[in-house]
Structure formats: C-alpha cells, structure tokens
Write a structure and sequence with these properties.
mainly alpha
Length: 454
Amino acid sequence: MPAPFPFEALLNFGYLSIMLLVGVTLRAKIGFFQRYLIPSCLTGGVLGLILIHLGLIPASVPLLETFAYHFFNISFISVGLTRDEEQADQAGRRKEYFKGSIWMALIQGVTFPLQAIIGGLFVIIYGWLGRKLFPTFGFFGPLGFNEGPGQALSMGKVWEGLGFENAASIGLTFATMGIAFALLVGVPLVNWGLRKGLATHGRKTLPPDLLSGLIPEHQQKEPAGHLTLHGANVDTLAFQAALIGLVYVLTYLLEIGLTPLLPPDVAATLWGFFFILGMVVAMIVRWVMKRFGAERLIDAGVQRRVTGWSVDFLIVSTVMAIKLVVVWAYIVPITVIGLIIGVLSTAVVVYLGRRLANYNLERMVAIFGVVTGTVSNGLLLLRIVDPEFKTPVAVEIGIMNVLVAPFILAGMVLVNAPVWWQWSVGLTVLVFVGLMSVALVLLKVFKLWGRPRF
C-alpha cells in the first residue's frame, strides 16, 4: 500500500542525518579524523557520496542540491538576524582591531582574484590545446575555495541555465577540495607555528573534546541560547525559525519583483545572490524589530545554533550531491586548477602573514581557513592556537566580513562577466589582475607588508 503522503524530501533529510551521525561516530573513534580535525559533516558527506554511487542509499541528487541551496540561504539569513552582543560590547575597541581586520580583508582581496586568474588562465591554455571549457569553468576556483560550497552550488545552478552542463556538481567538487585543503594543509600549518613558538597563547596539547568532537559528561557545558518567549505561548526555537521563514518569503518576493527590472542575463543569475539579499532583508527585519522594541526577542545563541546547524547539513548535502561521473570527465582541469590554487594560496598567506607586526600565526591560520574553505574552517584553525579566543582575531574575522565586501562583490560580478557581457576569459582575467593589484597596493598603504617577523 503506497504511503498517504510524499516522503521523498524527509527521507533524503534522513539520509543526510544518518551520514552526519556516522561522521560524529568516526570522529570520536578514529585517530586520523582527530589528528586533522576533520569535521563530522565532511566525513559523513564523503561516506554518503560513496554509498549513493554504490546504490546503497536511494537518495535523490537533485533534492540534495536543493537542500544544500536552501541550507546555504538559511545560514546567511540567520547571520543577518543575529544580535551580535559580544561585538557590540567590543565596539569601543574596534580601532584596536582595525589593522588585523583590514589585513585579513585584503588577503581575501588578493586571493580571490589570484584564484580566479589561475582558473581563467587554465581555461585559456586548455583551449589552446584543443579542449574547450565553458568560459566560467575556472572561476569555480574562487567560488569553491574562497566562497565555499553554498555559493559554488548556487552559482553553478544558475550557470547550468545558461548552458554550462553539470556546473553545480563541478562547483561542489571545487568546494569540497577547498575544505579538504583547509584542514589537511591548515592543521600541519598550525602545528608548524606552534612548534616554532609563534602562538601568543600557544598550547602543546589539544583538549580531548576538541579532538573527539564530544564534550565529556562532567565538563561544564556552554549554553546554546536563552528563552525569550514563554513556553506556554510559543517555543523560542519555533519563534526564531518563524523569523527565518518570514525573511525567506520577503526575500523571495524581492527576487520576483527585481527579475523583470533587470537584463535577462543578469536576472537569470539573480537567484545565485539570494543569500546576500536574504541577509540584507534579515538585517532590515531586525532593525524594524529594534525600532518597535522587539529585537530583544531574537536570541543570539539560538540563532548561532541555527547557523551552525544549517552549515553542517549544507556540507553533508554538498558532498553527497557530487556526481562522480561528471568529476571523472573533468578530472584533469579540476585537479590541476585545485592544486595550483591551493599551493599558491598557501604561499601567499604564509608570505604575507610572516610580515605582520603581531598575532602573526593567529591571523595567518584564520584567514587561511577562510580563503581555502569556509569561515568555520578559519575559526576552527584559530581555536587550536587561541583556544579561549584571548586574542582579538575572532572579533577581527567578524569585522573583516564587512571590510572585504567591495572585493567580494566586485569578484562576484566579474565571474559572471563572460555570461553577462560576453567578455572574453582573457579580458576578465586582466580585470582580476587589476583588482588583485589594488589589494596589494592597499597592503603597502596601510603598512601591512613589511619585513619578515619570523
């Protein structure tokens, strides 16, 4: 007898959940995953990918892509709704943090164009060898490494509508390579810095909970959030989720309203920017609530848990949605572009990180995690060298996300230039060279590029 209701969506969510739980178990039991601090979501995603292609999990790849796209949007909406009380308390100290924040923003301003230049040049050279790739193929380098799986997926789905076959799966592959690079290279980089005594608050051993991923039974637990509404009325988590739903609908209506006002090519890519619009709308909703004295109902702790939840499921679904047949068909360009981007990004971060006046290791490993994986990877690497966040670097990452906006927005426009304005890949690469040059000049202007300190 058939089920009375559709189950496919929730069954696919169940598969994601099972893989995440398997990842948690493997992290708690196996030394390799602990040694490199491999997050459970990545381990579970890789295992799920294998099981799907062995036919042992009947998951729907289109549904997994859909989940990943919406988890990505939810994570940014949740960030926009979050009342950042800690940073508000630090407002008077932001001048002290400015140099660190602007340095990390400019490093991202250097590496995003650098990764795009590498990808673009490979597409040009591959074309000379008689193997034509879609013009934006190489720009998955910065989208996957610098921006992460959500942006690589959302832009990939948009490009598929413009003729780039299997773009989403290719983008997800680049993003997965980036996260793996952030950890498999980032953790040894951290250990190297600790051995050289570069950490301001360094430690020789890592705590068991960081290694296993499980907090011991008798260890004091951090609160996940606070109740802002009475349970007899509505659960606080339900209220926080309802705010996200409100923002989602408002953002959707905004997208629908903007589409007829834009040129067709630009309108076609607008859905790839849903996360940015969602975050802006979320900030407007929070501002309106503040004006009416209701912002206190938004609990920062619960919203951060929503952000973390959505990112974990985003990465599981991202990896499981990769089509290995597509990856194999493009194994040479994906591997070559990914490895060159990873190596050169590491070299740039270490070269410029050695020239900072203070907090060299902390800032260097934090931004390395960001420009090869995600902000979460950057914070994870930072936590190894600064376990209690005694340095200002954790706050600087938050400020950096604001300061880097001009470079990221410019980069996001430029990766679409070949499909929006029919620019050649060569012209787009030249403009990226100019954008990278601006960031390098600003490093000199702000006196953040001096002599080596170690």
